[in-house]
Write a structure and sequence with these properties.
The chain is α/β, with parallel strands linked by helices and 464 residues long. The protein has 2 domains: 119 residues, UDP-galactose 4-epimerase, domain 1 (Alpha-Beta Complex), CATH 3.90.25.10; 280 residues, Rossmann fold (3-Layer(aba) Sandwich). The protein is built from 17 helices and 12 strands. The strands form 4 sheets. It has a 6-stranded parallel sheet with strand order 6-5-7-8-9-11, with helices on both faces. It has a two-stranded parallel ribbon with strand order 1-4. Strands 2-3 form a two-stranded antiparallel sheet. Helix 14 runs parallel beside helix 17. The N and C termini lie far apart (65 Å). The relative contact order is 0.09. The structure holds NADP nicotinamide-adenine-dinucleotide phosphate. Keywords: Isomerase, Oxidoreductase. Pathway: Carbohydrate biosynthesis. One of its GO terms (biological process) is UDP-rhamnose biosynthetic process.
Length: 464
């Protein structure tokens, strides 16, 4: 029942954009934008403030002539802002929501979520902050917080004071996140902590060993997490061949430990994001090499050639029955840190000889933030956690030569020759990333992701 104040005569023009379109723009820029670039987010459709006020009246079935009250203009109120957003459009973003639809959805949301914002009546106070204009200190305001002077009589030398009762209550706090992460000393666990710091998400590393239920319970009691991330696992040093000779240690962490953590989380109703592996598959007749037919989430493991993969395959199968677990099948992870010995690129660029087989791979710089987003969306079940498509060893090393070292050379050998220098066979496969791509349409195909997240930022060769 309060009047709708309009500053000045309402002829000021603005470009209004629906919030979901803005959020989509952020997402597109996050995933496709250039580092250090600036993007305007806007619309070419401009609207006068007065027309907006009339449209709002129409939505509330009230008469604009009765409800709209012209009040003193704000000092320095810009007549028009207009941003050219062509650069953002070039990234593939476009406005999707019409003005009418966006306004209606916004109104519906406010009307059906009164608890979220608290008292919004403060928005109808025409001059919500104290404005001190040098030269005059007189306060001219009526009991409703409206200036008595009509717009055309605007006196720019005045002080307008908001009534304290009209200050809107702060919005209720959103439920906050608190992550508990296992794998502090590990590669992926370390990266996750840094990401949480970057995103301002409170987190703590778990102190317990995975196989010790009482230690995990103590972690949950002290940290009180909203989500648990498991980046702990027996991975072997210098490589997974270690697991062949340390079977009980491997079982203790990868099987007993992972299942215990999932079970403790289940008991406490907490989602567990589990960094698992896609190295539980190998190309077969139904998924031949180079066919583009990848293994799907519902497929059962067909590669247990190494003890490491065997433990991971068994656990994945058992975790299917835990509805609080999100299993992420990582493969041959790559990060932009080319000095890290765990990085697949670092590994193959240091080998004396390499095989040349197309594989699905995970670009951590792109996908680890996605795993955090998956936690926020409370996604569960099994996910092939690789970029779409495959890339071969030689294709990666060719990129390495192009971007990092023009003199780089390597020697290929066959899988049979490779078998002579390793203990356990390695898995080669393509995972079908359709499910992940549908949830995160902005995710890049593997080769584009490699260039954007790894090779371009590390480029040492001149750009032609
Ligand atoms: N890197 C890859 O190629 C790759 C590929 C696919 C999947 N993954 C999976 O992703 C996960 C993380 O991999 P990563 O490369 O980051 O491994 P990583 O560098 O070897 O780190 C493993 C982490 O697990 C911890 N850990 C081991 N046993 C534990 C136990 N019983 N209780 C608690 N913590 C334990 C280690 O801590 P301590 O040092 O204290 O033991 C370390 O922090 C693993 O499950 C791995 O299998 C990795």
């Amino acid at each position: 029942g309060m009047p709708l104040p309009v500053h000045g005569d309402g002829s000021n023009v603005r470009s209004y954009l629906y919030c979901e379109d803005v959020a989509e723009a952020f997402e597109v820029i996050l995933h496709k934008g250039g580092v250090g670039h600036v993007y305007n987010i806007g619309t070419h459709k401009e609207r006068k403030v007065l027309d907006v006020a009339k449209d709002i009246c129409r939505l509330f079935s009230s008469n604009p002539d009765e409800v709209i009250k012209f009040v003193d203009n704000r000092p320095f109120n810009d007549q028009r802002y207009f941003l050219d957003h062509q650069k953002l459009k070039n990234l593939g973003w476009s406005e999707r929501t019409s003005w009418e639809e966006g306004l209606r959805k916004t109104m519906d949301w406010y009307v059906s979520n009164p608890d979220w914002w608290g008292d919004v009546s403060g928005a109808l106070v025409p001059h919500p902050r104290m404005l001190m204009i040098p030269g005059d200190t007189s306060a001219r305001i009526n009991g409703n917080g409206y200036s008595d002077s009509p717009a055309h009589q605007t006196n720019s030398s005045q002080m307008v004071v908001q009534e304290s009762s009209k200050i809107s209550a702060p919005p209720p706090k959103k439920p906050t996140l608190k992550f508990l992460i296992y794998g502090r000393t590990g590669w992926i666990g370390g990266l996750l902590g840094k990401l949480c710091e970057k995103e301002g998400i409170p987190y703590e590393y778990g102190r317990g060993r995975l196989e010790d239920r009482s230690q995990l319970l103590a972690d949950i009691r002290t940290v009180r997490p909203t989500h648990v991330f498991n980046a702990a696992g027996a991975t072997g040093r210098p490589n997974v061949d270690w697991c062949e000779t340390h079977k009980t240690e491997t079982i203790r962490t990868n099987v007993v430990g992972t299942l215990t953590l999932a079970d403790v989380c289940k008991e406490h109703g907490i989602l567990l994001i589990n960094y698992a592996t896609g190295c539980i598959f190998e190309y077969d007749k139904a998924h031949p090499i180079g066919s583009g037919i990848g293994f799907k989430e519902e497929d059962k493991a067909n590669f247990t050639g190494s003890f490491y993969s065997k433990t991971k395959a068994m656990v994945e199968e058992l975790l299917r029955d835990y509805d609080n677990v999100c299993t992420l099948r990582i493969r041959m992870p790559i990060s932009s840190d080319l000095s890290n010995p765990r990085n697949f690129i670092t590994k193959i660029s240091r080998y004396n000889k390499v095989v040349n087989i197309p594989n699905s791979m995970t670009i951590l710089d792109e996908l680890l933030p996605i795993s955090i987003e998956m936690a926020k969306r409370n996604l569960k079940g099994i996910w092939n956690f690789t970029n779409p498509g495959v890339v071969s060893h030689n294709e990666i090393l060719e990129m390495y030569r192009e971007y990092i070292d023009p003199n780089f050379k390597w020697i290929n050998f066959t899988v049979e020759e490779q078998a002579k220098v390793i203990v356990a066979p390695r898995s080669n496969n393509e995972l079908d990333a359709t499910k992940l791509k549908e949830e995160f349409p902005e995710m890049l195909p593997i080769k584009e992701s490699l260039i954007k997240y790894v090779f371009e930022p590390n480029r040492k060769t001149p750009k032609f």
